[in-house]
Specification:
Blueprint: H1 2-8, H2 10-28, H3 30-64, H4 67-74, H5 80-92, H6 101-110, H7 114-123, H8 131-138, H9 140-171
Helix pairs in contact: 1-2, 2-3, 5-7, 7-9, 8-9
Length: 172
């Protein structure tokens, strides 16, 4: 069994098993299967356009963004520019967070620093489109102070993640 999993990949094995279970379910109880297929279709309708967009971004990054540029702007040597890019990118990024993982993984493979990835992900909590609601419910002072604290702590969090990752590498 492990040879089959290694040969065709765990993802395909999971897909085949899930497909067989769904097929058996459809044969045993077709009325139960239809709502599941409808829900799957609705989910795919929402997720596929986002996936296509992310894959287009990855393609464009691979086409135009050379590893030297990533190292220059998003590595440990990038300095304040890298931190500002990670903070700004995290704030303006939209969509489901898991859709950003492939792009961040690709950038990491090209040389993006762990601290900047953590900072980017932390800053996704700041949503410019939701700031008016935050101001309305909590006021200007709270919104400004909280946003500044989130940015400061994103950098601290990025630094801490980088140190912990380095520490875990040293232990191996």
């Amino acid at each position: 069994m492990t040879n089959i999993v290694k040969k065709i990949g765990g993802g395909w094995v999971f897909f085949i098993i899930a497909f067989l279970i769904c097929t058996a379910s459809a044969i045993i109880n077709p009325a139960l299967t239809l709502p599941t297929l409808i829900a799957l279709g609705q989910l795919l309708e929402k997720v596929v356009p986002i996936l296509i967009f992310v894959f287009i971004l990855i393609f464009l990054f691979n086409l135009w963004l050379k590893p030297e540029a990533v190292v220059k702007y998003l590595s440990k040597q990038s300095g304040i520019k890298g931190w500002l890019l990670a903070i700004g990118g995290g704030i303006i990024s939209m969509g489901a967070i898991y859709m950003w993982y492939p792009l961040l993984s690709d950038l990491k493979a090209k040389g993006m620093d762990n601290s900047l990835i953590a900072t980017f992900l932390y800053n996704r909590a700041i949503k410019p489109q939701l700031l008016p609601f935050l101001i309305y419910y909590f006021g200007w002072a709270f919104t400004i102070i909280m946003t500044i604290y989130m940015i400061i702590f994103s950098v601290i969090n990025g630094w801490a993640v980088d140190k912990l990752v380095d520490l875990s590498r040293e232990e191996k």
